[in-house]
């Protein structure tokens, strides 16, 4: 081999090796979540956010009393919905994307049409601030949770109040439907998490958290587990089929305010008052990402319906839009790993694939920390032109009278149940 050929071969090998390292670095980087955009427009802390079903819009709620609707197209206008008279505490798109529900400290629930007309219906059956709204997966029902210690369920087709659930002894902070709509999970400042049967309107399960209370609670996508965001800085995952605590994460240094399951069910993202977001790998039972980007407490976080994006908001009034990335590679590997189990037992019981004991993660666990303030270059900061939507009530409000009738019905039902128990006890003695 001539000198020139040898030099070219050595250079070729060097270039190939260098390219391999570069591609490996690129692939590694691609797996990590990336902050894509900022949205600025709210004048106070964000409380809640939700993606539309098609992933092209994001709705946000804030202490500034407004809802905002953001479009992801470049230079698109943002809509600001004006009407609530106090803090907007929760917002959610209906499954079909044709309605937007909001809850407020002004004691009302509103249904908006998410367009530039913004027509709305107003529900007034709660007697205290409303803390959360949640549509059932089929869009037929809406559950609302309130500081009046009740959960109320509404029929969306007729936009009518259906029934109340009373067993909590303090403010109810959150209520969520199970994926199949047969259950509702709720959390309260009475330090309990309750599961309700929507058929017989009874509380069928109760989880107690004696240290703190849950700020937020939700079902995993398969409906077999619930996860809670604790004021005591913990995240807990229970299997509701066997009433067992599966996982117990202690990864935050401040209260956990919100959680969101990835649609695969394999990951959980958390938002905390310590100013960070954290992503947990539920199958491996460990913390995999710590995301920094907000200044001050983070109050809300949510994955998009397809899981390719997630968004977060907090005290700094900014909405951060992130691209997931990590799931593209991780999910494939996890699915292959569980393929054999799927043949024998479909789907695998979570006690088999989740760690069997609580995991009190220590900070020394190796994780990836992402601080976009240091790493992101030429980030698109979106402060779009904002259009104020001043709407007028399009339907008659649900009156307090209807709510009082329901209270009377519930009390009468309790009296009849107690009477039946006493009658049975007397019969047994005689």
Descriptive account of the structure:
With 430 residues, the chain is of the alpha+beta class. It has six helices and 31 strands. The longest helix is centred in the C-terminal third of the chain and has 30 residues, at 400-429. The N and C termini lie far apart (110 Å). Mean pLDDT is 81; it is low at 3-30, 331-365, 374-378 and 394-401.
Count of DSSP H/I helices: 6
Tell me roughly what share of residues is in helical segments.
10-25%
The backbone outline, from C-alpha atoms, is globular
Q: What is the end-to-end distance?
A: 110 Å
Oligomer: single chain
Please state the average pLDDT score.
81
State the total count of DSSP E strands. Answer: 31
What is Rg? 24 Å
Biggest sheet: strand arrangement: 26-27-28-1-30
Beta-sheet strand percentage? 35-45%
Sequence stretches where pLDDT stays below 50 over 5 or more residues: 3-30, 331-365, 374-378, 394-401
Helix and strand content put the structural class at alpha+beta
What kind of sheet is the major sheet?
5 strands, mixed
């Amino acid at each position: 081999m001539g000198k020139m050929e040898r030099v070219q071969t050595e250079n070729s090998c060097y270039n190939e090796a260098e390219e391999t390292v570069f591609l490996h670095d690129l692939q590694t980087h691609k797996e990590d979540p990336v902050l894509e955009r900022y949205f600025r427009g709210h004048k106070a802390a964000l409380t809640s956010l939700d993606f539309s079903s098609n992933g092209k819009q994001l709705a946000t709620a804030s202490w500034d009393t407004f809802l905002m609707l953001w479009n992801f197209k470049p230079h698109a206008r943002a809509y600001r919905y004006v009407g609530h008279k106090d803090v907007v505490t929760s917002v959610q798109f209906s499954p079909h994307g044709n309605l937007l529900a909001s809850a407020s400290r002004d004691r009302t629930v509103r249904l908006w049409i998410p367009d530039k007309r913004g027509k709305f219906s107003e529900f007034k059956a709660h007697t205290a601030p409303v803390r959360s709204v949640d549509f059932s997966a089929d869009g037929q029902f809406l559950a609302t949770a309130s500081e009046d210690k009740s959960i109320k369920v509404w029929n969306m087709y007729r936009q009518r109040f259906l029934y109340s659930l009373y067993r909590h002894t303090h403010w109810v902070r959150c209520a969520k439907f199970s994926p199949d709509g047969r259950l509702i999970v709720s959390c309260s400042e009475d330090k309990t998490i309750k599961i309700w049967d929507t058929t017989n309107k009874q509380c069928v399960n109760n989880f107690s958290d004696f240290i703190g209370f849950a700020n937020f609670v939700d079902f995993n996508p398969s409906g077999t587990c619930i996860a809670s965001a604790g004021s005591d800085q913990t995240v807990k995952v229970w299997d509701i089929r066997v009433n067992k605590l599966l996982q117990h994460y202690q990864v935050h240094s401040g209260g956990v305010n919100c959680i969101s399951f990835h649609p695969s069910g394999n990951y959980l993202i958390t938002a905390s008052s310590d100013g960070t977001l954290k992503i947990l790998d539920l199958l491996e039972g460990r913390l995999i990402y710590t995301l920094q980007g907000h200044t001050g407490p983070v109050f809300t976080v949510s994955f998009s319906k397809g899981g390719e994006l997630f968004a977060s908001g907090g005290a700094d009034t900014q909405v951060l839009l992130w691209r997931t990335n990590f799931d593209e590679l991780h999910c494939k590997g996890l699915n292959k790993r569980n393929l054999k189990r799927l043949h024998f037992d479909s789907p695998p019981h979570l006690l088999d694939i989740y760690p069997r004991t609580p995991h009190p993660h220590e900070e020394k666990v190796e994780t990836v920390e992402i601080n976009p303030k240091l790493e992101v270059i030429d980030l698109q900061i979106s402060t779009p032109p904002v259009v104020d939507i001043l709407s007028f009530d399009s339907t008659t409000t649900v009156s307090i009278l209807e709510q009082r009738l329901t209270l009377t019905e519930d009390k009468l039902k309790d009296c009849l149940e107690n009477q039946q128990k006493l009658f049975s006890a007397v019969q047994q003695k005689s």
